Amino acid sequence: xxxxxxxxxEYTDDxxxxxxxxxxxxxxxxxxxxxxxxxxxxxxxxxxxxxPDLTTTEIRRLARAMxxxxxxxxxxxxxxxxxxxxDPKTEGKERLIRTxxxxxxxxxDYTPGPDMGTDECCMAYIFxxxxxxxxxxxxxxxxxxxxxxxxxxxxxxxxxxAKDYINLDLNGARLVxxxxxxxxxNAARFLGEKGARLVAASDTSGTVYNKDGIDVPTLVQVxxxxxxxxxxxxxxxxxxxxxxxxxxxxxxxxxxPDVIDERNVGTLDTKLIIQGANIxxxxxxxxxxxxxxxxxxxxxxxxxxGVITVAVExxxxxxxxxxxxIKSKIRANTKKVLDKTYSEGLYPRVAADAIAKERVRSAxxxxxxxx
Length: 371
Ligand code: NAD
What we know:
42% of the residues lie in helices and 18% in strands. The protein contains 13 helices and twelve strands. The strands form two sheets. A seven-stranded mixed sheet has the order 9-8-7-6-10-11-12. Nicotinamide-adenine-dinucleotide binds at residues 115-116, 145-146, 150-151, 178-184, 202-204, 240, 254-256, 259, 276-278, 303, 306.
């Protein structure tokens, strides 16, 4: 079958994507993918991910997650995502980022933001090239979402609402974080402020576990200074995969897509999952969790803190406004999704999808049919 036919048959539905672009620049050897999924509600905003093993499928799925996330949060933005296929620790990173920026200059419907492997400094390079990026450093008018912990803050607000649906007390709740990066460490910090006790955290090098609790500021410092959580002293050291076997009340996946799937979901022993990462759990695994009575709040509801912040930045709002909007929007959306879940006997992703897609379709009614 012709490749373009495969793309249309396998990749598209009634929402999008509008564009799938593959970029190759032979001098710098830049290889990148951009997917603009849907722009009915406004110009697409979505992160630029940098990793050596990215695929078109991953970027397309992440772009759709952005469409739904932006719609669910009621933002005047559509969804898009980009991926630069390279090691984020590569020596020529600035050059690759600047080349990428020039390559997407004509894609006016897509505004890039930071994601795994890129940061506010990368966004500053893009802004310097094409004057279009969000998640910028403070000095350029940005609200540094990873520094202030926007997404982790939203994860904690989501947990505060979700806990009431399963009668869970946050005070003393055992917390496990998969992927102790920007999202994971800030989720640990803000959930800690609400009384939760971090008992385990992982990264690609391994897991640390202490049933009596791990000191979050010390773990953050260890990760920053030594590069991995495994150098935290007052804890048992386990493999990355062992994390799933640790019993918890709240589990926050904050690493990569599909880290929990049908093969390993059986080992996960928790009551409440707040999805900090994008698409961290396969649909099959989510269904298995639901059958077991584990409440799992979908990614695009729980982790919208970052994109709410960049939308506030886009309209030149303040950090204070960002925190206030994250709190109100994520609390309201979590409640709306879980009310629908329990009143209609759905599982949370189906309820969340229905709410977000209805918003996208409403916006699509105003689009011209002759483009
Ligand atoms: P990050 O790079 O700062 O942190 C990711 C962490 O996960 C790293 O410590 C890495 O070692 C670890 N990791 C990777 N694979 C792992 C695995 N298989 N098991 C355990 N740990 C693993 O990235 P981040 O900004 O925290 O983003 C994490 C996830 O959250 C991504 O899916 C990202 O798209 C999503 N997300 C981020 C934001 C944000 O504001 N940064 C917003 C929404 C969604």
